[in-house]
Amino acid sequence: MADFLDKMIVGINKGVSSVSEGSRAMVEKAKINTAISDAEKTKAQLAQQLGSLTHQAQQNGLELPENLLAVCGQITACNDRIAELKNRLSEMEAAKAAAQVPAPEAVPTVPVCPSCGTAGRPGGKFCAKCGTALQ
Ligand SMILES: [Zn+2]
């Protein structure tokens, strides 16, 4: 009986230790994956920087192999497109701003009775008080 219990405890301990080893391995894996994605982000940033610098150098007259030159041409095309689109946006903004200039509000003219001076209704033809024709 005691043997059986001992074995059970050993078994449980083994289970616990393999679980904690498993979670340690998981933590380790997560750390490694984070490090990989950090390195990949940095690499992407550096590749972008390299591309920009290469494009800049090409614009300044550096001669490049044809494959790099082709990509530089595409970057130039993108720059042109971006500039064109930004220009279109600012034109839209300008048009919107112009449209938003408040138009002078049409104030309804209130006819005043030439006879008694009473203000009539806008568009009214006769004075409500004395009946004189309004102009
Ligand atoms: Zn009147």
Provide structural commentary:
- The chain has helices at residues 2-59, 66-99.
- It is mainly α and 135 residues long.
- It has a domain at 15-99.
- Helix 1 crosses helix 2.
- The relative contact order is 0.04.
- The model has no long low-confidence stretch (mean pLDDT 84).
What is the fold's blueprint, element by element?
Layout: H1 2-59, H2 66-99
Helix pairs in contact: 1-2
The structure holds zinc ion.
Distance between the termini: 119 Å
Share of β-strand residues: under 5%
Radius of gyration: 41 Å
Major beta-sheet overview = none
| Overall 3D form | elongated
Low-confidence stretches: none
Helical residues, percent:
55-70%
Q: State the order of secondary-structure elements, H for helix, E for strand.
A: HH
The strand count comes to: 0
What's the mean pLDDT score? Answer: 84
**Could you state the oligomeric state of the chains shown?**
single chain
SS class: mainly alpha
Ligands in the structure? zinc ion
Number of helices: 2
Summarize the structure.
By secondary structure, the chain is mainly alpha-helical.
Label this structure with key terms.
elongated, 135 residues, mainly alpha, binds zinc ion, 2 helices
